[in-house]
Each structure stands twice: as structure tokens, then as C-alpha cells.
Amino acid sequence: MDIEYVRQRITELRVKRNISEYQLSYDVGHSKNYVHNIVSGYSQPSVKELLYLIEALGVTPRDFFDEAGEFDNPYLAKKVMDGIKKMSDENLEAVLLMIERLNAQSL
């Protein structure tokens, strides 16, 4: 894995969340060109700053570096998982039934 992967992944996740480079820069406490400079190759974030960017993109470091791409949209997957963790067993069974029905329809 190299810095090019990091640049591409920041852009990919930023676009999926519909966040501008300008907004992401401000979200992590930097000037408006901060993210642009990273994805354009003009600068590289420190490890600490990369972790801030990953958090602002709404994913875990594991999801950020998951080259296998377990989820097309790790931000949405994280939100779903966070919601599931708070559900009762009865509601979990209802969600499972809905997932099974939706997956059967897509076949």
C-alpha cells in the first residue's frame, strides 16, 4: 500500500459521502486547500492527520485500508452496524427477515 492508495481512498470516500474537499479540510481543522493538496500529491498527511481524515469520513481505519472492499459504501455499513447494536432481539429478527427478502428479490 502506498500514498497513492491513500489519496484515491480519501477521494472515493469523500465523494460517496458527498463532502467537498473544502468541507473535509475544515472538518479536520485545516485551510480550504488541505485535502486538495493531499489528493493532488502536493503534500502527505501525518499519521495523526490521516486518522482525523478517516474519522471525518465516517469510517474506521480498518474500513479505510480494506483493499478487498468488503462494502461498497463503508460509511453506510457503519451506520447500519451502529444501529443494529442498539436493537432488541425481536427487532434484529425483523431486520434479518427483511434482508433475506430483499436479497431473494435481487436474485
Question: How many whole angstroms does the radius of gyration measure?
Answer: 17 Å
The CATH topology label is 434 Repressor (Amino-terminal Domain)
Q: Mind summarizing the main beta sheet? A: none
Report low-confidence residues grouped into runs of 5 or more.
Answer: none
Strand composition percent? under 5%
Q: Count the strands?
A: 0
Order of helices and strands: HHHHHHH
Helix/strand-derived category reads mainly alpha
CATH architecture: Orthogonal Bundle
The level-1 CATH class = Mainly Alpha
Helix content: 55-70%
| Mean pLDDT across residues | 88
**Count of helix runs:** 7
Count of folded domains: 1
Shape: elongated
**Distance between the ends:** 35 Å
Q: Supply the CATH superfamily name.
A: lambda repressor-like DNA-binding domains
Structure description:
- The mean pLDDT is 88.
- The chain starts with a helix and ends with a helix.
- The chain has a single domain, classed as 434 Repressor (Amino-terminal Domain) (Orthogonal Bundle), CATH 1.10.260.
- It is built from 7 helices and no strands.
- It is mainly α.
- It is elongated and about 50 Å long.
